[in-house]
């Protein structure tokens, strides 16, 4: 049905043996095993899915997150974007659902259109498990004692304010993972900038800490850069990875569709997102729980 090849430095690519092959023919339990092991699974050369089919496919993993615009986000570049995801600038490293009370387990993309030239627009993924495993014990200790407060205004479909420990525990594998949203995105200052505060750090210390940390997240030792080809499907483990995007250069045509998959049975209803905001004074304790702060 497919041949597999490793992506670098992590991830697995499943190349379909026939253009009529469907991703639906790959058993979901095999997919979940591959996701646990490789954290990102790319499926190439399979036939495309219509919106309804794509939603049915994603629903086999669990209930879908239903945003204001529905379950499928159409990612296309717009002239006057309300959210920088739709602009041509880079997207900072983050995890999806950072401002939600329920974090998607997986995100799945289908690429309907992509230029083939070398002109940016790769989706970037950092393997945070490997990142922590390869860090020094001193760094790990320091990070384990760091919590970061983030806030952003709602410009399109998300906003909120959360305080999250920099090192979290993966809810399914039990491994330590990094939860981090990158500030200082020069391409996102007008649309929805991320404000950040680290308790117990002076502004200058905070700045040098963040610059060093961000540099490391982009190291090729832990980062897989996905260059899209029309027809690609990509599913990834949102608890283990952080992701972002490189700047899109001129004239690139790019159309991705994205679905967020939550945890639960296939016949669970889609769920609407619940945001954590400042006025609710809710603080995330780990990746899945929240508690009220006094
Ligand atoms: O456009 C991309 O490559 C990534 C966008 C993104 O972060 C998302 O859809 O969650
Ligand atoms: Fe994202």
N-C termini distance: 55 Å
Count of alpha/pi helices:
5
Q: From the alpha-carbon coordinates, what is the Rg to the nearest angstrom?
A: 19 Å
Total individual domains: 1
Written description of the protein model:
This protein is of the alpha+beta class and 294 residues long. The protein has a single domain, classed as Double-stranded beta-helix. Helix content is 17%, strand content 30%. It is built from five helices and 18 strands. Strands 1-2-3-14-6-16-4 form a seven-stranded mixed β-sheet. Strands 5-15-7-13 form a four-stranded antiparallel β-sheet. The C terminus is likely disordered. The structure holds 2-oxoglutaric acid and fe (ii) ion.
In short:
17% of the residues lie in helices and 30% in strands.
Write the layout of secondary structure elements.
Elements: E1 2-6, E2 12-16, H1 28-38, E3 40-44, H2 51-59, E4 73-76, E5 91-94, E6 106-114, E7 123-127, H3 128-133, H4 137-144, E8 147-152, E9 160-165, E10 167-169, E11 176-178, E12 195-198, H5 203-217, E13 223-226, E14 233-237, E15 241-245, E16 254-261, E17 282-284, E18 290-292
Parallel strand pairs: 2-3
Antiparallel strand pairs: 1-2, 3-14, 4-16, 5-15, 6-14, 6-16, 7-13, 7-15, 8-9, 8-12, 10-11, 17-18
Residues 75, 85, 91, 96, 123, 243, 245, 258 line the site of 2-oxoglutaric acid.
